[in-house]
Amino acid sequence: MKNVTDSFVSLVHWTSAGSFGFNTDILATNPINLSVVLGVLIFFGKGVLSDLLDNRKQRILNTIRNSEELREGAIEQLEKARARLQDVQIEAEGYRAYGYFGIDEQRHELINSTYKALEQLENNKNESIHFEQQRAINQVRQRIFQQALQGALGTLNSCLNNELHLRTISANIGLFGSMKELTD
């Protein structure tokens, strides 16, 4: 500070000497010029510099505050996402358990329906076999009856002669006539 004051004193001393001119001594003039420029800058630039630094400080603080808010929002979203993930995992586990239960239930239903279908097929098979047996038995009976009837007709035709045949017919006509009288 003393150098700045000395520079102004020597500046005053030169002006009082009444001479004006260029000082070519670089070592003497540079400190004077620098002290004047620094003095003016400090005097006039103090407020501007202070305002610039305050503005910069406010911007930095605002940036830090915004960053903190964003960080808190991100943490909150992360917690929500974790909670949602946990809910989804629980729900997925429920679906998985329900799926296994559903698969097991469907397997039992399929087994039961297969058993019912097999029982129905077995019943149909047994009915078909029984029907075929009855049809075969009826066919055998019909053949036996036809053979017996043919045999009886053959025996009757060989045993009956015309006279016996006529007497049988007359006897049957008589029987029909007496039955008709009874019904009238």
TrEMBL record:
Organism superkingdom: Eukaryota
Membrane topology: Single-pass membrane protein
GO MF assignments: proton-transporting ATP synthase activity, rotational mechanism
Assigned keywords, A-Z: ATP synthesis, CF(0), Chloroplast, Coiled coil, Hydrogen ion transport, Ion transport, Membrane, Plastid, Thylakoid, Transmembrane, Transmembrane helix, Transport
Main subcellular location of this protein, as a coarse class: membrane
Entries under InterPro entries matching the protein: ATP_synth_b/b'su_bac/chlpt (IPR002146)
Compartments in which it is found: Membrane; Plastid, Chloroplast thylakoid membrane
Tagged with keyword Thylakoid: yes
Transmembrane stretches, start-end: 32-49
Misc. comment: In plastids the F-type ATPase is also known as CF(1)CF(0).
Similarity remark: Belongs to the ATPase B chain family.
Subunit text: F-type ATPases have 2 components, F(1) - the catalytic core - and F(0) - the membrane proton channel. F(1) has five subunits: alpha(3), beta(3), gamma(1), delta(1), epsilon(1). F(0) has four main subunits: a(1), b(1), b'(1) and c(10-14). The alpha and beta chains form an alternating ring which encloses part of the gamma chain. F(1) is attached to F(0) by a central stalk formed by the gamma and epsilon chains, while a peripheral stalk is formed by the delta, b and b' chains.
Role played: F(1)F(0) ATP synthase produces ATP from ADP in the presence of a proton or sodium gradient. F-type ATPases consist of two structural domains, F(1) containing the extramembraneous catalytic core and F(0) containing the membrane proton channel, linked together by a central stalk and a peripheral stalk. During catalysis, ATP synthesis in the catalytic domain of F(1) is coupled via a rotary mechanism of the central stalk subunits to proton translocation.
Protein name: ATP synthase subunit b, chloroplastic
Species of the source: Oenothera nuttallii
